[in-house]
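R.M. (postdoc): so does anyone remember the format we settled on? I'll just put the structure tokens first.
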């Protein structure tokens, strides 16, 4: 069985260093300068930011470590089960999807990752920042990490801007110009990072609303173009409507959608399609 890529990579080290650097600047430079660590507001902000940073670290660790979902040994598509496979077969012009490199059939939505050197269930994309694929098993936790990272980045920006604009007078007397410069440098580094994370989060929300993976988005763009050329209309087979899409990606419990828990729906080997008979309970 192929192992997963290692954890000691430059991008992973960079992410951890960035979290540490922003945390240090926000809690130990910005908050003391703006609110002071002896005031209730200062302590509350320091505690809140610490909790957010801890949530970022915890979800990041899970996204890095969790297996994104592997094809079980001996997996064979159930061709008798029309509901689960027919649309996937149709999509691929009549052939059952088979991975030549792994020498097994590919379940619907699974793809071969050239970095992980194996097939990944419901592969979204290979992310170098976690040195892991984002797939069926770790998509939700990856998404929650990005969400927490966006919130933390904007929170840190507020603390940074606040501390640069209003500092407590006694700090000015002690001549803390170097801390002001450090805070500004952190703000300059953080701004493009926060923007990039927000754009990434926006993209994934857009994908979830359509029940698409990043791979399927790119495939869909091509399929749509081909369909339009042939005078047809392309329809993404896993698009079940906004609410069912959210449930199938984020889990059946709406209160857990933004929590750092992985309530993955199903085993990753078959997915409801819009051609299936509608059922009132969450799939599988
Ligand atoms: Zn493969
Ligand atoms: Zn991969």
């Amino acid at each position: 069985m192929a192992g997963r890529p290692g954890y000691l990579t430059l991008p992973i080290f960079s992410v951890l260093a960035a979290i540490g650097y922003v945390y240090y600047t926000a809690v130990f430079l910005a908050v003391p300068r703006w609110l002071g660590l002896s005031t209730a507001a200062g302590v509350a902000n320091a505690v809140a930011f610490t909790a957010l940073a801890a949530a970022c670290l915890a979800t990041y660790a899970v996204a890095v470590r969790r297996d994104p979902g592997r094809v079980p040994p001996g997996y064979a598509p159930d061709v008798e089960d029309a509901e689960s496979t027919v649309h996937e077969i149709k999509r691929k012009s009549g052939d059952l999807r088979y991975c030549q490199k792994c020498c097994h059939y590919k379940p619907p939505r699974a793809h071969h990752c050239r970095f992980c050197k194996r097939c990944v269930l419901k592969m979204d994309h290979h992310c170098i920042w976690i040195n892991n694929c984002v797939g069926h098993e770790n998509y939700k936790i990856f998404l929650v990490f990005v969400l927490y990272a966006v919130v933390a980045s904007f929170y840190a920006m507020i603390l940074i801007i606040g501390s640069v604009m209003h500092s407590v007078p006694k700090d000015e007397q002690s001549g803390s110009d170097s801390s002001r410069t450090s805070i500004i440098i952190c703000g300059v580094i953080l701004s493009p990072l926060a923007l990039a994370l927000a754009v990434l989060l926006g993209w994934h929300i857009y994908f979830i609303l359509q029940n698409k993976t990043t791979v399927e988005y790119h495939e869909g763009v091509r399929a749509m173009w081909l369909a339009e050329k042939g005078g047809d209309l392309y329809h993404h087979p896993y698009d079940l409507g906004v609410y069912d899409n959210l449930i199938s990606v984020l889990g059946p419990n709406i209160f857990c959608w933004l929590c750092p828990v992985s309530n993955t729906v199903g085993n990753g080997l078959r997915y409801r399609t819009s051609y299936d008979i509608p059922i009132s309970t969450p799939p599988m």
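R.M.: ...and that's the designed sequence above, right after the tokens. Also worth knowing: Residues 109 and 127 are 18 Å apart (CA to CA). Residues 99, 101-102, 112, 118-119 surround zinc ion (ligand 1) (CB under 6 Å).
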